[in-house]
Amino acid sequence: MDLVPALEEPLKQPLKSVLGPATAKVMAEHLGLHTVGDLLHHYPRRYEERGQLTHLADLPMDEHVTVVAQVADARLHSFASAKAPRGKGQRLEVTITDGSGRLQLVFFGSGVHKPHKDLLPGTRAMFSGKVSLFNRRLQLAHPAYELLRADAEETVETWAGALIPLYPATAKLESWKIGKAIQTVLPSAQDAIDPLPESLREGRGLVALPEALLKIHRPHTKADIADAHARLKWDEAFVLQVALARRRHADAQLPAIPRVPAPDGLLSAFDDRLPFTLTEGQQKVSKEIFDDLATDHPMHRLLQGEVGSGKTMVALRAMLAVVDAGGQAAMLAPTEVLAQQHHRSIVEMMGDLAEGGVLGGTEHATKVVLLTGSMGTAARRQAMLDLVTGEAGIVIGTHALIEDKVQFHDLGLVVVDEQHRFGVEQRDALRGKGKQPPHLLVMTATPIPRTVAMTVFGDLETSVLDQLPAGRSPIASHVVPAADKPHFLARAWERVREEVENGHQAYVVCPRIGDDIDEGADPKKSAKKKSAEDEAEKRPPLAVLDIAEQLTKGPLSGLRVEVLHGRMHPDDKDAVMRRFAAGETHVLVATTVIEVGVNVPNATAMVIMDADRFGASQLHQLRGRVGRGSAAGLCLLVSEMPEASPARQRLNAVASTLDGFELSRIDLEQRREGDVLGQAQSGARTSLRVLAVIEDEEIIAEAREEATAVVEADPELTQLPGLRTALDALLDEEREQYLDKG
């Protein structure tokens, strides 16, 4: 939104000798700010009012903070040290207060003289530094500070009256220095070209861009800030939605081969054999997919489904429809375990319909092949031959499918399982294997709130499966506070034993594998701090290998316990899963490799160790592995975190609802927006600054409608040069490629 001539001026050259080269260098390296425009779009994180003080009561540990407070007292101490053996060392301790709490500032050595003179009791100032702990008290060591003198003309002028903007800062550059730099370039805001079409801006009563920039950096009232935010949120939402709308428009122009299933073909034969009826949701979503497959431009559809809602069945029917129409379908899975599992379950569901070219295969049968990196040479060669001749209608594989050597006879549909585990380049490479662009169906089991879907997957049409098939059992979830109530954990293992005695099986999930070359966990480092508050946080996460050994020797002795984790050889993993699926193993102690797709209906209990180390959506995913048969499921969330901690609140939320969409909202609210928008932002520096995906649902929905209308009327944006410029700024080269690949 910024790259227009006056705002393109680099900060690094002395700009009217305003920003020194050192400041410009720090801004570029630490904040990603390179031009005047970048700096103007570096918005305040929040504002301090002169009459109100920051809450010292809730300062975050180890973070760089800016606080406004008053000096309560200042004391100079002398001490002896190696450098000053005669007791001539000096330490200045200053206590500041803001009504909510007190904080100690410490200055040493020759650094004490200036603050000793400046920081007299009653003085108000802004202080900036990293919060640390000393003698069980929070302190800032050698903070930078800026005095706030009511009578100093310059200060009042600089901080623009009543509201002091506090900027996202770094240890190398304090908030007020960024503020001063911004005040210097603020006159350039007048030259900002407005990306919003005038009719849209006036219709929605939004202020012009130069005015919004002025109001966000130099507000006189809270109404100024609200005006600026309302306007700048629209910029972010609208420009991003225009990028996505242009992408959808371009896709709609691509040619694709319509794939309409034969009336009495493979799909009909499959449907006739189903031992159950499809849910209403499955039928509705299947119709949406079949309608898309019948068009002459590529389908781009996102299929979201609750854990266990039957997405695989919907995807399989889409693949069968394409095979019926003479094409081939490929399903891309994120791991070998999952690819093997999909292959097994699809072959089982299809029965002799998966035995094309084999004696005993039926009339409409096709061949279903598996292709993974660890297959033997002969099996691999045969699978590739089946693909290039068209003998195999369906292939299920990992990224091995993407290799150059793999050729298809006529690729008509690509199904991507668990979208967030695949890079855009990988999806692109597979799509490039069709004679014409194949249809694309993306499946995700992590429910995504509607606004995130519109923002991150805005180029995909969305289908949602939100009802569970008949026969799925409810899952009861409970938090087990292992530190407060150790007997609860003992009871958890008794419950696992009871499930096994009743003929069922259980999972135990741990965050780590545990052979110490794992995830960089260093027990020595982790064990340094031993205060009750953070002990649960600081120790290394519990590990599969350790827990399995403890259980075998202790509470689960006598039961058949096996381990499963990502570093095992694929054949070993497969053997473990087969034994568990066959009921030979009672308890499987695993990492999150079981998170998606693993289907063992006889498994009824799951114990998740260190559950606080997982996000709400991930816990929901894991929990979906139990209760897949007729017996009810039980999920126990074990945590050592104190009751009042945010982590425990998150676990309570997971225990209280089975609604994955609700949990994904909780996850979003607890994580930074950038994590969620990783896929949409692709590392470009223009990540969202004022738009909050969950809170600004209405703006995003309206911006999508406006953007679609604008692009349909003028796909090249010839009438809207300001918007074109804003898009160029948003879509730097890397980003442009990203959206092209989708």
SSE topology:
Elements: H1 21-31, H2 36-40, E1 46-49, E2 64-79, E3 89-97, E4 102-108, H3 113-118, E5 124-134, E6 137-141, E7 144-147, H4 153-158, E8 163-166, H5 175-185, H6 198-203, H7 209-217, H8 222-253, H9 266-273, H10 280-293, E9 300-305, H11 311-324, E10 328-332, H12 336-350, E11 367-371, H13 377-389, E12 392-397, E13 411-417, H14 424-431, E14 439-444, H15 450-456, E15 461-465, E16 475-481, H16 486-501, E17 505-509, H17 523-526, H18 532-538, H19 544-553, E18 561-564, H20 570-581, E19 587-590, E20 603-608, H21 616-623, E21 633-639, H22 646-656, H23 660-670, H24 673-676, H25 678-681, H26 697-713, H27 721-730, H28 733-741
Parallel strand pairs: 4-6, 9-14, 9-15, 10-12, 10-13, 11-12, 13-14, 16-21, 17-19, 17-20, 18-19, 20-21
Antiparallel strand pairs: 1-8, 2-3, 2-5, 3-4, 5-6, 5-7
Structure characterization notes:
The protein has 28 helices and 21 strands. Strands 11-12-10-13-14-9-15 form a 7-stranded parallel sheet, sandwiched between helices. A hairpin with a 4-residue loop joins β3 and β4 (102-108). α7 (209-217) crosses α8.
Mean of residue pLDDT values: 81
Q: Count up the helices.
A: 28
The helicity comes to 25-40%
What are the low-pLDDT stretches, counting only 5+ consecutive residues below 50?
152-161, 517-533, 672-686, 733-742
Looking across the biggest beta sheet, what order are the strands in?
11-12-10-13-14-9-15
Question: What class would the helix/strand composition place it in?
Answer: alpha/beta
- For the CA atoms, what is the radius of gyration? 30 Å
Give me the count of strands. Answer: 21
